Please model this.
Amino acid sequence: MSKASSALRHPPVSPASAPTEPAGASPSFSEIAIAIDRERRRGRGAQSNASGRFEAEARVTFDDGWQSLDDLPPFKTTVALDTSRKVITRNESPDIGFDRSINPYRGCEHGCVYCFARPTHAYLGMSPGLDFESKLFAKPDAPALLEKELAAPGYEPRMIAIGTNTDPYQPIEREHKIMRGILEVLERAGHPVGIVTKSALVTRDIDILSRMAERNLVKVALSVTSLDSKLARTMEPRASAPPKRLEALRQLSASGIPTTVMVAPVIPALNDSEIERILDSAAHAGVKEASYVLLRLPLEVRDLFREWLMANYPDRYRHVFTLIREMRGGRDYDSQWSTRMKGTGPMAWMIGRRFEMACERLGLNKRRSKLTTDHFARPPRNGQQLSLF
Model:
């Protein structure tokens, strides 16, 4: 086995893993991606592991005639420590309902092939492909850092979103319990939080979440992409199965915790036919609110999704991308603030109307739960004398 370590301009490409691009186009992520053997990536979403876009060299594994690729070990999940000095991330995006978030982990073992957060692994010098779901980073100091930031004199409380980049309840949370530590800090401080996850592990923290819900401090959203177990397992290999997510919504709702079902992402010609069924199942689980997001394909995600489609649903590849481009102004992705979540054009309009009509029929979104900052109590800083009154 050999590895080509020079900067590759036009390396060999497997037709099954990289659809043809227009002549003269610059090399894309898929042009330097070679599909990894199925056994080595068992239980993973991405098909390849091309170098990150910031790397000076592109490394491609290929068989040099000795058949030694068969000896390479399968991808295993590794967890390194992230020593960030701050844990709250700020944003100024005008089309999302929060200005701050926390990500207890970098990378996500769920391995959702469409995940828009995959390109962030390139900032770490790693691949948005298989590296993103197997080389993870945990922030064990996150609870302590959060308490310190909340204690800062100038801090003004507003809802913190958790799970907006990578899932806070991905499998490694069972061992590290960073998310639970964060919730303990937020509960003590009376700080509001909104959680997004694909994992039934969120039910582990119902004790904390139910107490926070009594003070209007929390709401939880679970993303249900498909009720088709085969599609879900292929597309989101290590996320909770659809029935478990619906059961988690039922348990959370029964405990008095405001819940939302997210039909996200909606992928035309793949899961868009399930919108009504997902909403109906969630409503029967006690959910009162719902939302949806159209598939987003920024940067390397486009080519990773293409590879996955060609490997698993080759007969749908052209149709899926034709519909995506109809909803993205003729492009594979349009990052405009006002349209990136819902798309434009007749197909996007139809998806939106179907969603709204199903919500109206099921009584969803009649009332929106509102979180409060009235209970916020700034944590004492180290060495600060407690008030006597």
Remarks:
- The longest helix spans residues 346-362.
- The chain has a mean pLDDT of 89.
